[in-house]
Design a protein that fits this description.
heterodimer, A: 266 residues, alpha/beta, Pectate Lyase C-like, 2 domains, seven-stranded mixed β-sheet, five-stranded mixed β-sheet, elongated, B: 262 residues, eight-stranded mixed β-sheet, 12 helices, 16% strand, globular, Septum_form_inhib_MinC_C (chain A), septation (chain A), cell division (chain A), MinC_C_sf (chain A)
């Protein structure tokens, strides 16, 4: 069995159960089924595996990386209870634990060659870009799981180029700037101005909703229904009283001003 | 720790990083500080041109890093201020000639002698940007009152935060008060709605900048042009003086009548 979990710095795919009777290629096919069912949820992301006690060979790891790559997903860490597997993971340049990415390491350490590579998107902005580490003054209680539920609570402004991806709900206390991206398996709630893009129900849940105090997104999606606001809607972003919920009704995204929401949620 | 290394960056090109570096560095030197301005744009050298010191370059930062000269030999003294120096960059190499660790080491050397090291970052968010960011104690992000430059500034402010170099401070460059009033240009408030970071200076659009860049004399060296005043105010804020931020105002009817602008 495979589970997708979110943590503060991205997604973890957990491979539960005894693997001795399930060969790794079979488990990868199970993962591929998940990836191909909801490619948009994963696309462009960085994920980690938690393989529990399953020992993986170097080939197993390489096949996993290749499979993810074909869905534009980067494997950055593999957690394992098996020391030999962890060594192979490190040998491939992957992390073997979920250390919160600190200040991104100097992209090109100690190289003086002429052909020093430019830092690539994956080396310089791996999970750090997905969810930048917290500024020192924010305590962990302010960002991370909402205890007892499946969600990511982020208490800051989400800036251009930053992506928050979580299999459960995503809640932002703060504005979501143009160029920022929220991707949630379930609902999205923005206590602030939503100007970036938001994809709720990205794992297929068409009952998911997107709520914002000010709804002026670049575009929003719920499950596989996309809505691109008309320019007139975007210009009216400074209008007061635009607390809005977006949901799917008859295969279309409809916007409901606050007050009508409880009626529609029934 | 005193904030000695100040990196000036923007994401987008052409917003005025180099002009800002030249003027803020010169203004700090005129306040009696010992200052070096460092061109971080390897391969697209132009801080030396804006400073008017191009013809005095013998060695550059890449020569120093690769051991062909001593640091002192690469530094060019600018005689217009008591203690102002330029560390030029190489014109014939590219960004990969130096890495962030080497940049940190160069700045550590300079820290021993200078009060302020002002780094002119290249545009973009690739290695040149990381080189300029690595040694920074303080980051100033330059933006114009225009949507795409604000979008890039937002991206850069986020990157500065994630490298634990934040919060970045903002310089709004080339603001035209008349056009803001007519709603043809983003206002300071529009910019703050998106970026919400501290503003350290607002520099009005000023024709004096163009001619001064072409002559190689930063505006702060002569005169009372609006941009010169704004840059001197930024320098005073950097050394900790409490200089209130003033929004550029549209010219009144009598200013227009007598041909004064700004």
């Amino acid at each position: 069995m495979i589970a997708i979990k979110g943590f503060k710095h991205g997604l973890v795919i957990v491979f539960w159960g005894d693997s001795s009777n399930t060969p790794w290629p079979t488990r990868l096919r199970e993962l591929e089924a998940k990836l191909s069912a909801n490619p948009d949820f994963f696309k462009g992301g960085s994920i980690a595996f938690d393989v529990k006690a399953t020992p993986l060979s170097e080939d197993d790891l390489r096949h996993s990386i290749a499979l993810l790559q074909s869905y534009e997903v980067t494997l950055w860490a593999v957690l394992s209870e098996d020391e030999a597997t962890r060594a192979r993971v490190r040998a491939l340049g992957l992390a073997d634990r979920l250390t919160p990415p600190g200040p991104a390491p100097a992209p090109v350490p100690h190289q003086t060659h002429e052909d020093t590579p430019f830092p690539t998107a994956t080396s310089s902005s791996t999970p750090a870009t997905e969810a930048p580490p917290l500024p020192a003054h924010i305590t962990p209680a302010e960002e991370g799981y909402i205890e007892g539920s499946d969600g990511l609570l982020v208490r800051r402004r989400v800036r251009s180029g930053q992506v928050l991806r979580h299999p459960g709900h995503v809640v932002v206390i703060g504005d979501v700037n143009p160029g920022a991206q929220l991707i949630a398996g379930s609902d999205i709630i923005v206590w602030g101005k939503l100007q970036g893009s938001a994809h709720a129900g990205a794992l297929g849940d068409d009952r998911a909703v997107i709520c914002a105090l000010e709804m002026s997104p670049c575009f929003i999606r719920i499950a596989d229904v996309t809505h691109i606001p008309q320019p007139s809607r975007r210009r009216s972003r400074h209008k007061a009283g635009s607390i809005t919920m977006a949901r799917i009704q008859d295969q279309e995204i409809v916007f409901v001003a606050w007050g009508g929401a409880d009626r529609l949620l029934e | 720790m005193q904030e000695k290394v100040i990196t000036i960056t923007s994401g987008k090109g052409g917003v005025g990083k180099t002009t800002t570096t030249a003027n803020v560095g010169s203004a700090l030197a005129l306040l009696g500080k010992k200052v070096v301005v460092l061109d971080g744009d390897i391969g697209l050298r132009n801080l030396d041109i804006v400073m008017g010191l191009e013809n005095r370059i013998v060695y550059d930062i890449v020569d120093y890093v690769e051991g062909r000269c001593r640091l002192r030999q690469a530094l060019i003294r600018d005689k217009r201020a008591p203690e102002l120096y330029l560390l030029p960059t190489a014109q014939t190499r590219d960004k990969s000639a130096i890495n962030p660790d080497q940049m940190i080491r160069v700045c550590d050397e300079l820290r021993k002698e200078f009060d302020y090291i002002i780094i002119d970052s290249p545009a973009g968010i690739e290695q040149g940007f990381h080189n300029a960011l690595a040694p920074a104690d303080r980051v100033l992000v330059v933006t114009n009152p225009e949507v795409s430059s604000v979008r890039d500034a937002d991206r850069v402010i986020g990157l500065v935060e994630s490298h634990q170099k934040g919060p970045a401070q903002l310089i709004i460059n080339r603001l035209i008060a008349e056009r803001v009033k007519k709603q043809e240009m983003l206002s300071t408030q529009d910019i703050m709605d998106v970026l919400s970071t501290e503003i350290i200076g607002i520099v009005p659009e000023d024709e004096a900048i163009l001619s001064s860049s072409n002559r190689g004399t930063p505006v702060v060296f002569n005169g009372k042009s609006p941009a010169a005043i704004a840059y001197r105010d930024i320098a005073r804020r950097l050394i900790g003086e409490d200089v209130p931020l003033t929004l550029p105002q549209p010219a009144s009817w009598w200013q227009r009548l007598f041909g004064k602008t700004g």
